[in-house]
Amino acid sequence: MESNKKRKGENGIQKKGGLIGRHIFFMKPYLIQTLKELALLGAMRDRIEISSFELARQLGTSQQTASRYLLDLDKNGMINREFGIKKQLIQITQLGAEVLQKEHIDYQQIFELPNRVYFQGRVVSGMGEGKYYTEQKGYVDQFKRKLGFVPYPGTLNVEIKYVERNKLRMLKNYGGINIDEFKTKNRTFGGVTCFHAKIDGATGAIVLPSRSHYSNVIEFISPICLRKQLGLKDGDEVKIMISLDKKLSQ
Q1: Could you give the domains of the chain?
Q2: By mean pLDDT, which of 167-171, 179-183, 186-190 is the weakest?
Q3: Contact partners, residue 137, CB within 8 Å, separation at least 6
Q4: How far apart are CA 228 and CA 54, in angstroms?
């Protein structure tokens, strides 16, 4: 019946109050991931035949959840679907392709084009452990040799938006300057990955513990006391520029 049909424009794009452009900026991450999986299976070029069970295995989720993701994508005009007895034919629409293209551009901006990654956050207090770790000889010697400076005792902690943790995950995958683990008489100190960086123009590096869970707090080390030099206090907004080069350009 006509009342049950979706109102669609050209290329099967569902129009909802003229808000098509906004979908590209407000897509839920799990829906983008689902789109990507469908594209990898060939749904950008042609219709693919797949069941919700098969998609669930691809996504590592339940069949019910995979079905809901497909329903959401269909409702938002990201895919076209035709139902069969056991499977469905799915093809990504022009709007869905635009979402993936924007993701591609974002990744290019992060890694390929400027060779730099940018974060904005606010200064927060840590637990005081940074001073203890940055004074360990096993770390200090490697910082001096590999980063070119001895850090001022302690770290400056910057809280970033939760959604930007993916940038930190990609940084680890990209590969930075490895600071190896070492042992003392009492314990083992884990390895960390560093990237040359600047915070509000001051030179230093960020430190990513190799074995910890991803946090929304960036630890920044520098040869100077950043709080004093930059006049920073908790809650102040700062900008961090991270270089993907082994040597930080000026």
Answers
A1: 2-110 (1.10.10.10), 115-243 (2.40.30.30)
A2: 167-171
A3: none
A4: 56
Provide CB contacts within 8 A for 106, sequence distance 6+: none
Q: Burial level of 77, CB count in 10 A (0-12/13-18/19+)?
A: buried
Has residue 161 got a pLDDT over 70?
yes
Yes or no: say if 162 and 213 are a contact pair by the CB < 8 Å rule: no
Tell me phi and psi for residue 179, to 5 degrees: -105, 115
Weakest-pLDDT range from 105-109, 187-191, 197-201: 105-109
Which amino acid does the sequence have at 47?
R
Strands (DSSP E) found in 173-236:
177-179, 182-183, 188-189, 192-199, 202-209, 217-221
pLDDT for residue 109 is more than 90:
no
> Tokens 């190799």 — which residue?
210
